Amino acid sequence: ADPTLRKWLSERRPFGAFWFSLGSTALIETAVAAGAEAIVIDLQHGLFERKGMEAAIGVVPGNIPCIVRVEDHSAAAIGRALDAGAEGILIPLIETAEQAALAASACHYPPAGHRSGGGVRPLLDFERYRDAAGRAVTVGVMIETARGVENAREIAKAGLVDFVFIGTGDLALSLGRGFDRSSLEDEACAAILAACTEAGKPCGSFTVSPDSAAALIGRGYWMTVVANDITATRSAFDLSLRTFAEG
Ligand code: 3PY
Ligand code: MG
After folding, report:
1. Does the C-beta of 71 come closer than 6 Å to ligand 1?
2. What is the pLDDT of residues 193-207, one digit of tens each?
3. Annotation says 45 is catalytic
4. Alpha-carbon dihedral sign for residues 28, 17, 212, 144
């Protein structure tokens, strides 16, 4: 059987991930118990350190895609997340096809790419792991700057790139609109989605509410985010206080 994320990719089955920034393994276990479809662990802005990331990946069952948003597009950052057991890699701030192809190549062992062999989990049974990783590892590059939008068609076509994911917050910042994600239907996002369609690759987009996530799926996006730990806990706290105050 295909690994779950690869299967969803080839079937273009859309999904909504839970996104984690707070660095808590217990919170990820809680989301899994709640029935999360897929987990994103954010190392770029999130609070996870290396051992914390290893522990967090360890609590995600094998049938639930575990995607790590790495710190940057370096082979070192990508290799650390893959060695910990990530199935999907999300690479931030990609602006050119060359960057995309090089970063995607760092996700695969030779001869397909230039990932370095090593790490604790891979070396427990390397031949088996290498074979499994070759079939499972799924690479998403994030377009989230004006320059990335200009190059979206070439980025989407880059070799070994499986999907594109829009960082709506940074994209809004880059376009001079503050950190306003509400411009999801604007030309920049439509251009990225069209570039993906032309390249035959699915497109994802970041959002922070289940309503807007569902709307994105309705507009043809493949991957989105139904909840993140910061906004979900914040709104639960706000609701508790309001309910208590209203008696
Ligand atoms: C963005 O919106 O810029 C992201 O990177 C998602 O967190
Ligand atoms: Mg971003």
Report:
1. no
2. 999 999 999 999 999
3. yes
4. positive
- Domains assigned to the chain: 4-246 (3.20.20.60)
Tell whether ligand 1 has an atom less than 6 A from the beta carbon of residue 169: yes
Query: Quick one: pLDDT band at residue 1, thresholds 50, 70, 90?
Result: low
DSSP letter, residue 222: S
Please give the backbone phi and psi of residue 210, each rounded to the nearest 5 degrees, phi first: -60, -35
Instruction: Give the model confidence (pLDDT) of 136-160 as tens digits.
Output: 999 999 999 999 999 999 999 999 9
Nearest to 174 by CA among 149, 207, 141: 149
Q: How far apart are alpha carbons 187 and 169 in whole angstroms? A: 15
Which ipTM was obtained for this model?
A: 0.99
With CA atoms as reference, report the closest residue to 22 among 224, 180, 227, 238: 227
Looking at residue 155, its pLDDT comes to 98
Which ligand is located closest to the Cα atom of residue 19?
Answer: 1
The average confidence (pLDDT) of the chain is 96
Rounded to the nearest 5 degrees, what angle is found at the Cα of 107, between the Cα atoms of 36 and 144? 65
Give the residue from 29, 91, 88 showing the smallest Cα distance to 55: 29
